[in-house]
Automatic annotation (TrEMBL):
Family membership: Belongs to the DNA polymerase type-Y family.
Protein name: DNA polymerase kappa
GO molecular function: damaged DNA binding; DNA-directed DNA polymerase activity; metal ion binding
A Pfam family matched in the record: IMS_HHH
Residue intervals of the UmuC domain: 98-262
Species the sequence originates in: Syncephalis pseudoplumigaleata
EC code(s) of this entry: 2.7.7.7
EC top class named in words: transferase
Length: 420
DNA sequence: ATACATACC
DNA sequence: AACTGGTATGTAT
């Protein structure tokens, strides 16, 4: 039986399955036990415990800092924040209509196109799981061997990147360059040109996607990119371009739903009594004092329901990398061979993308799951497998002896292959 | 600027 | 017996 008393640690190990709505409590208990028994005592498990302890320490220090502020007059801070927020409010842009397209279990849907028989069977692709599997307690990113314990008849298919890329191209040439990432489409001009409503445009997108791939998909409309996950699956949700509607929407929104708030930040904010958008509002003064400027700006924008409305800004790639996980490896020669493989793969990717870079980073994960990285900035850009191997080797030699389960090579400070 | 770690999707 | 590849941010030097 699970004997852990630390709630945040259990949440970390179990994921959201344990609290999944629609599951019987006996099922939940069973799922909890299976996952716990399968994880207990593994190096991964112990590393998660370390990470959780670090988080608990951070939370303690945060609460201590808050205690120091008790009884202080913070009126001036409040005025500062309110001024700040009035400024943000003034920049609110309600003129754009944006559709958020998210294809749930996209890989699985593509596989079902190839093999319709799979539709009636529990099936997962790679280590991820599709919706149907979730009633067994299987969740995204759960390792296959645990998923199999929860559902022995589960069919796990290997990932086929090229296939999904092709599927995504077929879906919407307009925006889905990466099949696993949701797409944001600014349809403001399209609506003007066609005279269609946002609902009609979205309906059209959904129909085209269904025709081309039969993929399961979810779509919401939002100026503010926080409507996803509502009405899943096959749902469509319209958030009106109206301040009151948006503020009401944000008010009760659990912070974890915000793109950018993950497990750790959720725990940190929860410890400060912040669970919803409204809590952000109420705790704004203390958050201003406890969080970094960047974090507070993020919170501010979220609390006011402000999202990106200019989707035309395009980003340049900042880095490119290759990493591989393997069985624990301590032999130096074996490690050098692995480095060679990875350098060759990275060089091939660099050639394809026609880029080179001046900063090389070696990433290692020890057999106890702790991660380290070592980097070096060079006077000149490199791109050949030989050079990547040469500088990677220098970094790797420095760490000997070391027992590792993952190695990665990353190149940053990138430049176009043609330049200089 | 650079190095390293962490969080997130 | 717990992935990969990318971005952003915080902190120290």
């Amino acid at each position: 039986e699970p004997t852990e008393t630390n709630a945040s640690f259990m949440a970390r190990i179990l994921g959201p399955s344990a609290n999944k709505a629609g599951l019987q409590s006996t099922d939940k208990a069973m799922i909890t036990r299976v996952i716990y028994e399968a994880s207990k005592g593994t190096p991964f498990f112990e590393n998660e415990r370390r990470k959780d302890q670090a988080l608990c320490g951070r939370i303690e220090r945060l609460l201590e800092k808050r205690k120091q502020l008790e009884g202080r007059d913070l009126t001036h801070i409040r005025k500062l924040v309110d001024m700040d927020w009035r400024q943000l409010e003034a920049e609110r842009d309600l003129s754009q209509t944006i559709v958020h397209v998210d294809m749930d279990a996209f890989y699985a849907a593509v596989e079902e196109l190839d093999n319709p028989e799979l539709k009636t069977k529990p099936m997962a692709v790679g280590v991820g799981a599709m919706d149907d599997g979730r009633k067994y307690g299987i969740r995204s990113a759960m390792p296959g061997y645990i998923a199999k314990k929860l559902c022995p008849e589960l069919i796990i298919l290997p990932l086929n990147g090229a296939k999904y890329k092709h599927g995504a191209r077929a879906v919407v040439a307009c925006a889905l360059t990466c099949p696993s990432t949701p797409a944001y489409l600014n349809i403001t001009n399209y609506m003007k040109e066609t005279g269609m409503t946002a609902e009609q445009v979205t309906q059209q997108i959904r129909q085209e996607i269904r025709m081309l791939t039969n993929a399961y998909q979810t779509s919401g409309q939002s100026k503010h990119q926080i409507c996803s996950d509502i009405n899943k699956p096959n749902g469509q949700y319209m958030l009106a371009n109206d301040r009151d509607t948006i503020m009401a929407f944000v008010r009760d929104m659990p912070i974890r739903r915000l793109n950018g708030i993950g497990r750790v930040t959720e725990q940190l904010l929860n410890a400060l009594g912040v669970h919803t958008g409204n809590d952000m509002h109420e705790q704004r003064v203390i958050l201003k004092l406890l969080l970094s400027p960047k974090s507070f700006e993020f919170i501010s924008r979220a609390a006011l329901g402000l999202g990106r409305t200019d989707l035309s800004i395009q980003y340049d790639r900042k880095s490119i990398s290759v990493e591989r996980t393997f069985r624990n490896m301590s032999d130096v020669q074996q490690q050098m061979d692995m480095l060679d493989k990875i350098a060759t793969k990275l060089a091939a990717n660099l050639e394809r993308k026609e880029i080179k870079g001046a900063t090389i980073t070696l990433k290692l994960k020890r057999s106890d799951f702790t991660v380290l990285s070592r980097s070096r900035s060079l006077a000149q850009c490199i791109f050949t497998a030989d050079d990547l191997y040469f500088y990677g080797k220098q970094l790797l030699v420095e760490e000997q002896p070391i027992d590792i389960r993952l190695m990665g090579l990353r190149l940053s400070s990138l430049q176009d292959m043609r330049s200089k």
